[in-house]
Amino acid sequence: MCEANAYLIGDNDNKLVMESVDTVEPQEDGVRLVSIFGDQKYIKAHIHSLSLVDHKIFLK
Question: How do the domains of the chain map onto residue ranges?
């Protein structure tokens, strides 16, 4: 599977915000995450980095 987990970068740790993310869509003031199950979340953040080998998306 190619889905990833999305994390919000905090001061001391990274908080998991969604598992099994299939789609990441940049929006005007944030990002929209869609999982392989059809769940959707809107996060007021921007893409900080991607770790494709580890299947991780980091938002800040």
Answer: 4-59
